[in-house]
Amino acid sequence: MRRTMRIILIPLFLLLFATGFSTGQPGDGKNLYEYHCSRCHGTDGTRGMFGAKNLQKSLLPDAAITIQIRNGKRIMPSFKKKFTPNQINEVSAYIKTLRKPAI
Ligand code: HEC
Fold first, then answer.
1. Whose CA is nearest to atom 25 of ligand 1?
2. Dihedrals phi, psi of 73, to nearest 5 degrees
3. What is the pTM of this model?
4. Which of 26, 27, 34, 58 has the maximum number of C-beta atoms within 10 A of its C-beta?
5. Which numbered atom of ligand 1 lies nearest the CA of 75?
């Protein structure tokens, strides 16, 4: 009986955790990007501070962008403690709009 409860409750908590923190406003990705990322990448993605990659030229697929934001790479810090999974999705959706031509 306790085992069954745990099997039901754990996914429920995970679901709440994953969705609960998000503010869900459109444009959040842009705000998050400008606050946390533009100091290295620039508001248009081309600043290149500390060797930051040009995001207009980046071809990384979604999964790789998510990993990079979560884990960081070299000078780029990890954002997994700062962002919820949903915020990571919003930021990665936003940085793809910086690409030229947009993909
Ligand atoms: C302290 C500077 C810094 C900050 C802040 C920063 N980055 Fe980066 N970013 C880098 C550097 C340096 C690289 C290149 C890493 C490498 O491959 O050597 C990079 C690479 C990337 C790449 C990979 C591009 C490619 O094609 O390989 C993505 C995507 C990216 N950053 C997104 C972000 C996002 C989104 C944020 C904000 C949440 C962010 N970065 C914040 C420095 C930064």
1. 58
2. -160, 125
3. 0.81
4. 58
5. 12
